[in-house]
Amino acid sequence: MTTTEESATAAATGASATERFRADKTAVADTPPERVSMLAREVLSAIHATIRANQVSYAEYDALKAWLIQVGADGEWPLFLDVFLENVVEEVASADREGSKGTIEGPFYAPGAPELPAEATLPMRPDEPGTPLVFHGQVRSADGTPLAGARVDIWHCDALGYYAQFAPGLPEWNLRGVITADDQGRFRIRTIQPAPYQIPTDGATGALIRAADWHAWRPAHLHLKVSADGHQLVTTQLYFPGDPHNEDDIASAVKPELMLDPKPSGDGVDVEYDFVLAPS
Ligand code: MBD
Ligand code: FE
């Protein structure tokens, strides 16, 4: 482990994720007051019911206040919400969409990664640790037509579990790129296998996980946004069989359709995965 990566902290990661969210997701939903009122009332009623049913004390109420203040101070609202709520938002949003399954985006996407050709190696350090991984496949429309020039925006953490731009000391676009598929919608990406990801243990989200005696792990995963003209973009993640946390992902974002089938190849692994996009 390098010194730079050892210095990754919840505060640094959280601050970057909060800044990223503010920069990219400024659009505020134009929600009518009746809907705001209904949603806020339902959420508050659920909390009231929990307080009554469990006879919550003033000490516990104050612990909650202190914790909520700390989530913001650590910049961990994007992390906390994406880990514990986004999976249900994604489920509702994609319920009626045909084509490849999606899953949550999570807090560590960065738009504007380097543009790469259909056969490419992701930006990485000369001595990038990890098992070499070749990830290839084809992007097709729901009727089977190959989607020429489809775009595969891929990002993942390194072999120590750190994401470029959210942990200090990594090159800006390490293990991030936007691949344009060829005229048959095919792509071939050389990278390294990501490590399982542990939620930062030194921030407010980690404190909750510890206080509740949960575990802090996500299984190893590749993140992707796959898109093509005239089609709906799919945000997804792909997972590796045998990971101990495929069955108990803290972010509840694993689906059977998202499991890869890696084959040993040379000194690494080869995985093939095709995407099907729904017309827009
Ligand atoms: C991650 O890497 C991630 O993908 C999600 C959803 C939440 C926290 C860290
Ligand atoms: Fe991730």
From TrEMBL:
This is Catechol 1,2-dioxygenase. Residues 135-163 form the Intradiol ring-cleavage dioxygenases domain. The lineage of its organism: Bacteria, Bacillati, Actinomycetota, Actinomycetes, Propionibacteriales. PANTHER family: DIOXYGENASE, PUTATIVE (AFU_ORTHOLOGUE AFUA_2G02910)-RELATED, INTRADIOL RING-CLEAVAGE DIOXYGENASES DOMAIN-CONTAINING PROTEIN-RELATED. The keyword Repeat does not apply. Keywords: Dioxygenase, Iron, Metal-binding, Oxidoreductase. It comes from Kribbella koreensis. InterPro entries: 1_2-CTD_multi_dom (IPR043029), Catechol_dOase_N (IPR007535), Cchol_dOase_actb (IPR012800), Intradiol_dOase_C (IPR000627), Intradiol_dOase_core (IPR015889), Intradiol_RC_Dioxygenase (IPR050770). Its cofactor is Fe(3+). The keyword Iron applies. Belongs to the intradiol ring-cleavage dioxygenase family.
